[in-house]
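**User:** Once you have settled down, spend some time on the protein underneath, comparing sequence with structure tokens, and judge whether sequence predicts the tokens.
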Amino acid sequence: MNCGGRTRSIIGAQSLINAGVPNKVVSLKNGTQGWALAGYPVLKGVTARAPAVSASGQSLARAAADRVAERHGIARIDAITLARWQAEAKSAGRTLYVFDVRTPEEYLAGHVPGMKTVPGGQLVQETEVHAATWGARVVLVDDDGVRAVITAHWLKQMGWDVAAMTLDMRTAGAQSGEWMPRVLDLDAVTIPTISAAALQQRMQSGGISVIDVDWSRDYIAGHIPGAWYGIRSRLASVLPQLPAADVVVFTSGDGMLAKLAAVDARQITSAEVLVLDGGTTAWREAGLALEQGATRMAVPPDDLRLRARDQSGNVKQAMEAYLSWEIELVNQMATDDDQRFRILGGRHI
């Protein structure tokens, strides 16, 4: 098993071991970063995918998942139980997260309304990105009886109150397309919007400024030509740096964060404030050009920690530092009286 660093390869290898796969299972030490540090070539932009699972393979996987569920006490619930928990979340205030752990392509083709898409391996690696309330219930959903259980047995070891559920998406998956999150108070926000085509025309005429409040990594990867990068919480220092303009347009990946930033901006600028309808995604889908690089940074790009491979220099040192930090986590956990990991028994890699 292999991944970019260590986490998902270890998760994948140990999952196979926990499932009782008879083969010898190992993970590539330090993953692709270790491979690169050893001086071996690394391919980029590869799109190859594993072949579809055969019927016999699916049967074996379901049997293995059943063993994991029984051995590690993973609860499997039905739609009636989920509905009861959803009602309790509203009446008693106990937070409930429901994640569809299938592939993004499967989710796009059909899913249950309101369920967020997070592939299982990513959810285990980045749980805090998707579930912020400790002690919440977590329900993982699949359509094969395998992926939800395997993901759940990791979240249980991490201390989450988790259950698995399997649905026939041919009948239950009544919604298609991207997941649209509900943002608190966004329904009450009324901000005028501008289309991608209209924004392009207005920018050619001048007198308009565009502020991109997305992640700095995404801004650098591709943004509207002429747009400035800013952070919502620092608009008071961002706006004065922009060229004088009668109109300020906010954008972000899907446009949601841009709406919230626009509400804030109306309190500190006399310019007309608009939001790009559909965000930068709509600009891209309209076939309009994007600009790359840190071209107009109104604030430092310190909103996130860049991955080692994304560093502008000293990539090798960054990889070595990351691997050293992650390896040391085991020793840090041994002295941390607040960590909630409970490793289940059995054979380990």
Observations:
- The mean pLDDT is 90.
